[in-house]
Amino acid sequence: AFITSAYYYPTSKSLGSNAVAFNMAIDQRSHSMQNHTFTVIGTNLTTSLSTVATSQAEGVGNCRYTTLMGRTNTVENLKTLEIESNEMTVQIPFKMARYTAPKPVIICISPQFVAEQWQIFLMHVHAANRFGGHLHIYLTSIIKSYFELMQEYERQGYLTLDYWLRMKFSNIESQYFDPNANIEWRNQAGAQTDCLLQYKEAAEYIAFFDMDDILFPKNYPTYLEEFNAVLATNPGTNYMFYGRREHEFVKNCHFSIMNTNTFSAPTLSEFSFTELVDSLRSSKVVKRGKVVVRTDAYNATWIHYSKHVSFMTRANVTSPTLVHVQLPVEKDGKRKNTSRNMWKIEFGPLNETIREDDIRAIEEDIYRMKNVSTIQSLAPQLPNADFYLPIVFKCYYDAFYGVAFDHQPGDVGCLNADFCELPQRENYKCIHSDAQYYSGPSMKPVTYHFTSHSFWSKDIGCY
């Protein structure tokens, strides 16, 4: 098992006092895991307490590994946290849960890898800021200049950056299945559960979105007011489910004669939120949605919702839908990224509400940030062509989209991008998350692996 995080709560509205919660990726098909329980030992300066943690898995059955959250209550003023099995123990690192949040609505962005789409980031971060949301962004790998752009937005208070690490075992005494290749979508559910555990006591609402899922509130000026109103009109509910409507938009791009597999993107100085919104076109295709939850309603989550929370407590929101901006086109309406033409979707007029005063305010906010000296200096270094996007989309299409939506032959196995062949780049360097990796002693039935001292590395590359 690979432990991605553990948190301690001196007090908790839903977990009780002196609670601990740990988040891991674990081999769910191992016969030795049947009926397995997790014994946790918490110790302070004077006392040790052994308790049995309750657990819940949030993955899918067709992947070898699943995301699992365990929780229990332990001693006050916790100093060390251990997991015990058959009289063997391993001490695991833990962090204090957050008790304050930058804003009442936290938007947990699923882990970004070979990230280069800074235009979609600008669209999302400024929209979220306008409506009272704060982005918490997990990064595995990202183009260096794009990373520096995010760092400036973090300094300005728009977002929080966090590490999402590839899982590695520093010491192995038996054969194993590679967890990175055998867990759904880079352990996205683990990242979203980590975000939930971090902000559970600090935020009023937590949204679990992708970077290209953007919500424009329809009836109220802020997310907080909109969410409160939705739940108030649906008595007995404590979380919301928003569908994701496919959209295309113009990135103000022109064809690059340097590489026929890419298309050029606008420079930062040319980026216009107003023009981008004017170019948005909606489809009738609404994909499986994402949730926004009251923090006391969830203890863990899957990619789309928790499998352990009743649908009876869910408010299904049919309008607005999330604006899923996955399909950029050129000004002539064509796509140089021809892999996207495989997925046949028709688009028509925009059917979402984006208010004019919000558009003006967001444009003014973008203009202000464009004139920050740090951003002015790094703007010319931002990538002007999409390189990884068509490769990743083709990989995803072959693995899932083609079979699921276009009746292409094949079976949907463990949905994962780890098998995608993604080359390194010489002209655009990447920042990659890294850490010190540790393996605990060999234990039956589970040996635990974990990390500490995460950092941003320039040495790994883009992939």
Word description of this protein:
There is one protein chain. This protein is of the alpha+beta class and 463 residues long. The chain has two domains: 94 residues; 275 residues, Spore Coat Polysaccharide Biosynthesis Protein SpsA, Chain A (Alpha-Beta Complex). The protein contains eight helices and 20 strands. The strands form three sheets. Strands 9, 10, 12, 13, 14, 15, 16, 17 and 18 form a nine-stranded mixed beta sheet that branches. An eight-stranded mixed beta sheet has the order 7-6-3-4-5-2-1-8, with helices on one face. The protein has a three-stranded antiparallel beta sheet with strand order 11-19-20. Strand 6 and strand 7 form a beta hairpin. About 3% of the residues have low confidence.
Mean pLDDT: 91
Measure the end-to-end span. 23 Å
Helical stretch count? 8
- What is the general shape? globular
Short key terms for the protein model shown above:
nine-stranded mixed β-sheet; transmembrane; 463 residues; Spore Coat Polysaccharide Biosynthesis Protein SpsA, Chain A; 8 helices; alpha+beta; EC 2.4.1.-; transmembrane helix; Glyco_transf_92
Q: What is the topology?
A:
Blueprint: E1 2-9, E2 19-27, E3 38-43, E4 48-57, E5 65-73, E6 80-85, E7 88-92, E8 95-96, E9 105-112, H1 118-130, E10 133-139, E11 141-143, H2 144-155, E12 159-163, H3 188-199, E13 205-209, E14 213-214, H4 223-232, E15 239-250, H5 273-279, E16 281-294, E17 314-329, E18 347-348, H6 356-370, H7 373-378, H8 388-405, E19 430-439, E20 449-457
Membrane topology: Single-pass membrane protein
Family: Belongs to the glycosyltransferase 92 family.
Protein name: Glycosyltransferase family 92 protein
